[in-house]
Amino acid sequence: MADISPTRSALLASKGSLxxxxxxxxxxxxKRDALIGExxxxxxxxxxxxxxxSGVSKGAYVSLFSAKAxxxxxAVESLSLAQGSEYxxxxxxxxxxxxxxxxxxxxxxxxxxxxxxxxxxxxTIQAATDFQTVMAALVKVAATETKLRRIGEEIKKxxxxxxxxxxxxxxxxxxxxxxxxxxxxxxxxxESFRLKKIKAKLEREAAxxxxxxxxxxxxx
Length: 220
What we know:
mainly alpha
């Protein structure tokens, strides 16, 4: 408060700052509430994606064990080494209430394995197809949980800003306003007291002058 000039212009400026800080806190709280709603909606999506991944993974490993049992482990491993390691995913960055999150498009590979079925057992083909489904489920989980993490981080950041405004900035501005008003009120009281003294002095002088004038007229 020592750096504040206790003037009416400073009081107006502090009131403006208080209005801005209060509006900012309200906007941030609305943003936080919207993000919390989005967060809980994504939690449901993330749980569903995890359940889907768990289900397709179990089915894929059953297919893999069956393929190894019927087509031999060597044939399955040889085929896996012959497959390309790339899995291209289309991704763009979108904004959710100001939070940048990835939006991933899972490629539609169909149900056909990326190799010729000649001399390849049907169970091996099924295992390869099932693991393509696992890859799609993994991408879905990654996209959903990345959104979830980033929105959660933004909720924490927004909450910290709201707390800073409500617990530090706004109380500080209110303290400045009380200080300025106190000084201005004290000045007004002192000015009022000074004016009353001047008025009383002028009234005494007027009365004395009037009395002297009346005494002079009586002497004449």
